[in-house]
Amino acid sequence: MGFSMLLYANAALQGAVLGIQHALTALRDHGAVDEANGLLASFTERQRLVDKPGFDALERKYTTHRDASPSPQQNSSRI
User: Fold this and answer.
1) What's the DSSP call for residue 35?
2) Of 5, 12, 23, 35, which has fewest CB within 10 angstroms of its CB?
3) Residue at 77 is within a domain
4) Which of 48, 21, 45 is nearest to 35 (CA)?
5) How many domains does the chain have?
6) Separation CA 35–CA 37 (nearest Å)
7) Does 2 map to a domain?
8) pLDDT value at position 36?
9) Domain that holds residue 27
10) Dist CA 69 CA 75 (whole Å)
11) What average pLDDT does this structure show over 15-31?
């Protein structure tokens, strides 16, 4: 009794590894990579994949009106 199986996640991972290797090789050899050479997704596509508008909405929803980050003087007084 035989069967065959395909692991799509593994195929995606192997494709990603190859893409990373190509992009980093081009960066090493040429000092830069950009969308034009076909090795990078567009910045718009990157923003879509990470759901940037969704995170922007969360930031607006949960940001307080006062600055939550301590000033350098506040940091030094805690040492």
Assistant:
1) G
2) 5
3) no
4) 45
5) 1
6) 6
7) no
8) 85
9) 8-64
10) 10
11) 95
Give one word for 38, left, alpha or beta, with left for phi > 0 and alpha for psi -120 to 50.
left
pTM of the model: 0.58
Determine, yes or no, domain membership for 78.
Answer: no
Quote the tokens at residue 74: 């506040």
Half-sphere exposure of 52 (CA within 13 A, CB side): 7
Question: What number of CA atoms fall less than 13 Å from residue 2's CA on the CB side?
Answer: 1
pLDDT band for position 2 (cuts 50, 70, 90): confident
Query: What is residue 8's predicted lDDT score, i.e. its pLDDT?
Result: 83
Is residue 70, in this structure, part of any structural domain at all? no
Q: What is the pLDDT of residues 26-74, one digit of tens each?
A: 999 999 998 888 999 999 999 999 999 999 999 999 998 765 566 555 5
The DSSP output letter for 37 is G
Q: Which residue has the tokens 């567009």?
A: 42
| Number of alpha carbons in the 13 Å side-chain half-sphere of residue 65 | 0
